[in-house]
Design brief:
single chain, alpha/beta, Rossmann fold, 2 domains, 14 helices
């Protein structure tokens, strides 16, 4: 698996790939991750947490040949992703890709690059893929309208043993014991494409909390001293922060899935979100959340939803089923032979 997104980044793509790797290994598969930490790299402009590999072609080729894979999956469209795509094209071997992130919308939000131009680049990248894996029907429909084909489903799962209701976390000695209730929570990257400002601008009773890190953190912290910014949280600590809140508010309009939605639901948190791909696919017509263009009203209505309803909905999402989908989408091939004369 080739990915430009990897530790120490903290985001849904990294968590998804790491969990997938563990699930595949537990099922008896050998998995080799080709990620930026194995290359010289530099920080991504405006997003230094992301490292971009420098001229990865020659080393990437050797890593692939040394691994002797029977399948190659390219998870991201960064320098490593393009180098792996070009390698596979030269060798005439099949590979699969995934559409984890709406990069055209993200780039447009940051630098106003026209969507048509960015989507043309995305079509070129994924056009040679044997299968473009997407998490939801909504994203598949969007890509199909923009001229993508050979699209396959690869859903997501949630660790329901880690993320679960914890009544003790709502007490005075819990993570939010000093805040007025109800507590409205956002978890995720603190970046402009996540539309967090829409959440912070809402007139809501109780308190607002943001858990996560990112390039917009300090700016939002200065503008909103009334909001609790808790920074990045991990593992058991993150699970306690979910369980200590009352409503999960998801203001993003650009996520392809939103793994945090499942983590919140598994923790017993009702979801308030816009009716866009991601929330529409995860929540749909379930009573576990409220989807509305009026995000304030969605949050107020969601507060009345039973935690058990949310938990029951999250239990429908299994990592075992997701891993099986991933394997079915792969395109295996015969082991490769190292050829020193191949060009970079």
């Amino acid at each position: 698996m080739v990915s430009d997104a990897w530790f120490p980044q903290v985001n849904g793509v990294v968590r998804t790939l790491d969990t997938l790797r563990q699930e595949l290994q537990q099922a008896g598969h050998a998995v080799d991750m080709v990620t930026p930490d194995r290359f010289r790299s530099f920080p991504c402009p405006s997003y230094p947490e992301i490292r971009l590999a420098v001229k990865p072609g020659r080393k990437l080729r050797r890593l692939i040949e040394d691994a002797q894979p029977c399948a190659i999956h390219i998870a991201t469209e960064g320098p490593l992703g393009w180098a792996a795509r070009n390698y596979c094209r030269r060798r005439k071997i099949p590979f699969t890709t995934a559409y984890h992130t709406k990069f055209p919308e993200y780039i447009h939000a940051r630098w106003r690059v026209p969507l048509g131009l960015s989507y043309a680049v995305m079509r070129r990248f994924h056009g040679a893929s044997s299968c473009i894996m997407v998490a939801t029907q909504g994203i598949e429909d969007e890509l199909a309208k923009r001229g993508f084909d050979r699209i396959g489903r690869w859903s997501r799962g949630v660790d329901t043993e880690l993320f679960k209701p914890r009544p003790e976390c709502k007490l005075a000695d819990g993570p939010w014991g000093d805040l007025a209730r109800p507590i409205h929570l956002y978890v995720g990257r603190v970046a402009v494409e996540k539309n967090i400002q829409a959440f912070l601008d809402l007139d809501l009773p109780g308190s607002k909390v943001v858990v996560g890190d990112g390039p917009q953190l300090e700016d939002l912290r200065r503008k909103h001293p009334e909001v609790r910014f808790a920074g990045a949280r991990f593992g058991e600590d993150l699970a306690r922060h979910y369980a200590g809140a009352d409503v999960f508010v998801f203001p993003s309009r650009t996520d392809t899935f939103g793994l945090v939605l499942l983590e919140a639901l598994a923790s017993g948190l009702p979801v308030a979100a816009y009716p866009v791909p991601g929330p529409l696919d995860v929540i749909g017509d379930s009573p576990a959340g409220v989807l509305s263009e009026d995000l304030r009203q969605a949050a107020l209505k969601a507060a009345a939803i039973s935690p058990q309803v949310c938990r029951d909905h999250a239990l429908r999402f299994s990592w075992t089923a997701c891993t099986r989908q991933f394997l079915e989408n792969l395109r295996p091939f015969e082991p490769l032979v190292w050829n020193e004369r191949d060009s970079d």
